[in-house]
Write the structure tokens for this entry.
Amino acid sequence: ICRYKCGCSPAIPSIIHTVNFFLLFLGVLRVHFDQLLLLCMYVVYHTMHGIFRLEGANGAISRIFSLIFFFSQNVAL
């Protein structure tokens, strides 16, 4: 999915799939966690991409910092 949507290097998704394949041997929970993390990264990437398009660089940067602050507050709790 990532290969076609975000236009990143084809090597990156294949590395991720390889890592996930090896993590299968370490336990299902770990793989689920990693895929959840990848999904979050994917969603965040597309959200940032959309914000950059809509608001331009200045609006996007302020939004990104507010998101980072919001997440860091929630993780700390």
Observations:
- Residues 1-8 have pLDDT under 50 and may be disordered.
- The first helix runs from residue 2 to 5.
- Residues 2-76 form one domain.
- The CA atoms of residues 25 and 31 lie 9 Å apart.
